Amino acid sequence: MALVRVLELYSGIGGMHQALAESCLPAEVIAAVDVNTVANEVYKHNFPSTQLWTKTIEGITLAEFNRLSFDMILMSPPCQPFTRIGLQGDLSDPRTKSFLYILDILPRLQRLPKYILVENVKGFEASSARDQLIETLEKCGFKYQEFLLSPTCLGIPNSRLRYFLIAKLQSELFSFQAPGQILENFPDQKPKVPVKHTVIAGLEKKRSFTPTKEENLEPNSGSDDGSGQCSQKEAFLFKLETVKEMERKWNQDSDFSIQMLKDFLEEDGEEMSQYFLPSKALLRYAFLLDIVTPTCRRSTCFTKGYGHYVEGTGSVLQMAEDVQLESVFKSIEMLSEEEKLMKLSTLKLRYFTPREIANLHGFSPEFGFPDKITMKQRYRLLGNSLNVHVVAKLISFLTG
Ligand SMILES: C[S@@+](CC[C@H](N)C(=O)[O-])C[C@H]1O[C@@H](n2cnc3c(N)ncnc32)[C@H](O)[C@@H]1O
Question: What is the mean pLDDT of residues 80-89?
C-alpha cells in the first residue's frame, strides 16, 4: 500500500506528526508549515527529515499546493479568534485569514485530499469560520463528523476540551456518523455514568449530583454559571472554593477510569527546585491556584502562559502530600505576610515541568527540546499544542 502523503499545516512543535506516528497509519509528512521560528526549531529537532516551510500559509500558491500532491491535511489553525476568553473576532480577526485562504484553495486543487482533520478550541463550533468550513467540505463532497473531546475520555488526568473535525472524501457516511451532532465521546465509547458517590466530610451529603461539564475545568471558567461570581448559596469554604467545586474535584479524584498524575511525573531531584513557586506568586495568587497532588486524577488545561502567569493557566503540584490544604488556608488572611509565606511553603508547591506536560499531552519519551529553547518558550509551545493520543485515535477513525 502506498504511503498516505500528509500535509501538516500550523505544525507548531509537531503534535499532529506525533499523533500520525502513533496511529500506525502507513504515512509520511511530506511538508509541515508554520511561521513561528522557535516552534520550527523544536519541530526540526524532533523530525529532522521532514520538509519544514517557515512561511505563512497564505504565502503558498495554488501551484505549490498542487505540486505537493497530498492525500491528507492535518491542521490546528490559530485559536485566539474563537476562545471564550478572547474577543472572538472570528472571521474579522486577521489570524483567521490563513484558514479562509485554505478554504478558498481547497475546491480549486487539482486533486482533493482524501482526509482532513481540524483541531481548534471549544467555541469554534459556534463560529462563522466553522460554518464556512462545513460549507466548503459539503461543496467538495466530503463526509464529516465533529467532536468535542478532552484527554480525560482516554483516562488521562488532564482537561483540554477541544473541537475536532474529521472529514473523508467518500459518498457514504462514516459508520458512526451522527449528522447534525457534535460527539462528546469517541464512537467506541459509551457516555460515562454519572458518579453519585459525592462527599467530603462535613459537607452537605444529600444533593443529587451530576458531574459538572468538562467545560468548567477549563482555566478561568470560574463558577458554574460562567459569571465568575459565586451565588449567595455557594459560600466559599476556604481557598475561595465552593462546596460544588470541592465536590467536583473530589468526584474526579475518585474516578478510577482516570490515571493518577504520578504516572506522568518526573523523578524528584535537585533540579526540581527551579520549578517551585516563587514567594511573590505564592503570596499573591495562592487563593486562585488549582492545587493537585500526585495521587489526584485531574489537572486543568495547561495554556501558553503557564509557568509565567499564575492565574488560570494550569494546575500546580503540591509535593507535600500529607499537608491538608484546609489546615493551610483556614484563617490564613489573619496572618502577617511572613507567617502566611511560612504556612504556604509547607505545601511545597511547584509547577509541572515541560516534560511532565509533554507526558500528559502524550508526546513520546524521545520528544525533546533543543537546549537553547528557554523554559518560557517550552511552556508556551506546549500550551499551544495538543493531546497526541486524542488525535491519534481520531486519525484511526478517519482512515479505518
Ligand atoms: C494552535 S498552534 C498549532 C500547534 C501545533 N498543532 C502543535 O502541535 O504544536 C497554531 C500554530 O499556527 C502558526 N500560525 C499561525 N498563523 C499562521 C500562518 N498564517 N501561517 C503559518 N503558520 C501560522 C503559529 O505559529 C502556531 O505555531
Answer: 72
